[in-house]
Write a sequence for this structure.
């Protein structure tokens, strides 16, 4: 009987030792939703002209691309209408506090711009509207810029 108790005690001590060596937390922590989105955003994105809307312009999407960073974007090919924008990324992995900048003096934002990223993080859609601020009609209205990840 004493031998059985000793064997059970030995097995218990051995089990505790094995289990405590397995745990560890020394491995990499999984990335947060924010970190995953921030990594996906950085790089060059090309316009999807067929899915985009260019307000009251004759643009066809040729030559339009954007470079995204962790805090904003710079647009190439839209200098007469906007040059980029800024945003923040929430802890939940969503783009918030979107602002479009570089609008010409004759246009102002109408409402609050939005930006969304698809679940695969390969498409970004930026939506905003402009209103007249000085007699201009070109570029006035609704914009929907859809970008696909290039690199």
């Amino acid at each position: 009987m004493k031998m059985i108790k000793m064997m059970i005690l030995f097995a218990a001590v051995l089990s505790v030792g094995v289990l405590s060596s397995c745990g560890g937390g020394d491995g990499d922590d999984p990335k947060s939703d924010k970190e995953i989105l921030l990594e996906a955003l950085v790089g060059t994105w090309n316009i999807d002209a067929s899915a985009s809307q260019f307000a009251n312009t004759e643009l066809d999407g040729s030559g339009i691309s954007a470079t995204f960073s962790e805090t904003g974007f710079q647009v190439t090919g839209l200098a007469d209408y906007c040059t980029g924008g800024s945003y923040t990324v929430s802890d939940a992995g969503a783009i918030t506090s979107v602002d479009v900048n570089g609008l010409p003096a004759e246009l102002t934002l109408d409402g609050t711009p939005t930006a969304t990223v698809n679940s695969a993080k390969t498409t970004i859609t930026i939506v905003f509207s402009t209103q007249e601020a000085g007699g201009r009609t070109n570029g006035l209205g609704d914009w929907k810029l859809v970008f696909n990840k290039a690199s």
The helical segments are 2-22, 33-41. The CA atoms of residues 106 and 134 lie 5 Å apart. The chain has two helices and ten strands. The chain has a mean pLDDT of 87.
